[in-house]
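From the shared-data thread, chain only:
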Amino acid sequence: MLFLVSSIFFAATASARPSRMIYRQNPIDIGGLTIQAANRIIPVVVGGPQDTFVPNTVTAAVGDVIQFQFSNGNHTVTQSAKDSPCQPLQATDPAAIHSGHIPFQDGQTTVGTFNMPVTKADTMFLYCATGPHCQEGQVMVVNPTDDQQIVDYSKGSMATTESVDGNAVSGGTVASIPLEAAAFVPAPAQEAGAPPGGAPPGGAPAAGAPAGAPAAEAPAVTGTPIQTIIATIPPEGTTIVIPLGGNAAEATIPGTTTVIVTVPASAAATAPAA
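Structure, as tokens:
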């Protein structure tokens, strides 16, 4: 009887083991990278309307895969040391993480991905090496020890003056997924003919000028107004004395000026009748 019970127990145990092993060994393909069904796929959106990682902190176990999905723009996932933000760890560790530059353009129907298997549970610091993105705060931390780490790392990145790119792709696999399977909705496509660099459209006021502001007026001219003299042109050869003071008596006052004009023949010939 004891032998029979033991045999039944052994058979039940043996039949349970294969089902569990099949479950853990059932492979899943995620854009060229095969993982076990028991592992998690953790999506992280890179870029988009703003240069960010969403989320910017992730807690992952060994065997999980962080799938970086590249949205609008051109971005990288590059590893740095904790105290050297925006500088590639590949300079001292060739096996450090670097995805290379992966763009997303308007109208794409697929999304570029970088599938990074988590091989150890250590804290990892990542940034985007494109242009000033790191200085603008496009950084993230994998397996942070506390909430303050991402704050300190982001603050440190903003204090740098330039980003250094990584070298060869390392630490993951570059692939793609259909757009409908992505964890984001692309930013609206830019209109054709939109002014480059955020320049205002034609006729719009320059940056800093309030809309509808009137054009600046020319400064007022100050000084002595010009005196207008209206006279009938006399016959040819007549000499006219015009005191600028306004009357003949002022011509003898010191400081005044007298203009003597002799009417030429051409002026007399064309002058209208009085």
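The mean pLDDT is 75.
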